[in-house]
Amino acid sequence: MTTHFRSFSKIILPLCAVVCFFAYANAQDEVSVEKTKQGGKRVTKVAKGTFEVKATPLPAEDNIGDPTIGRLSLDKTWSGELAGTSKGQMLGTQSESEKGSGGYVAIERFTGSVQAKKGSFSLQHHGTMGGGRFEINVYVVPGSGTGELAGISGTLKIIIEGAKHSYEFEYSLPAPK
Questions:
Q1: How many angstroms separate the CA atoms of 29 and 133, rounded?
Q2: Among candidates 157, 176, 177, which has minimal Cα distance to 51?
């Protein structure tokens, strides 16, 4: 049994130390590398910061849609590791019987930089609100990235605390060749 324990401690314990070190390093940098089905590699990172949004109601168009569906233009300024501007449109509706409940969809186009990589990409939103709870899903539109952001994919988490908006953007880019 002593020989077995020595073999275990010589092989397994150093291996565990190496695995723990790499897990710690990846957690600290919030970076990971994964292989794609096509054999390429993608680097996944997390960008954080804040944004300000100006939503302006747009007039209804004759004979288009239902009057209970509102349309707004979006104009955002992004700060932090996602730095730039975006413009888009949102469609939304509110419940007539339950105050604070409703849903929305939106598309916006971001132009600027993500952790110093410059370009643009589109974001697609869908969200629901009810009973004081929000569920907001925001995704990068596949194939929409340009410049150094070509090939970008990811999800954006919107955090609303009072009147302040912040984000956590988990994204992947093709690894440099």
A1: 31
A2: 157
Same domain, 47 and 22: no
* Tokens 């300024």 sit on residue: 77
Whether 41 and 26 share a structural domain: no
The span from the CA of 8 to the CA of 1, in Å, is 11
Pairwise CA distance, residues 94 & 62, whole Å: 21
- Amino acid sitting at position 169: F
Rounded Cα–Cα distance for residues 3 and 167 (Å): 53
Q: How many domains does the chain have?
A: 2
Distance of CA 74 to the CA centre of its chain: 17
CB 147 within 8 A of CB 120: yes
Q: CB within 8 A of 102, min separation 6: which ones? A: 92, 93, 94, 95, 128, 129, 130
Name the residue range of residue 144's domain: 36-174
How far is residue 34 CA from its own chain's centroid?
A: 18
- Residue 140 has a CB neighbour count (10 Å cut-off) of 21
Same structural domain, 8 and 87: no
* pLDDT, position 53: 96
CATH of the domain at 96: 2.40.350.10
List pLDDT tens digits, range 151-166: 999 999 999 888 899 9
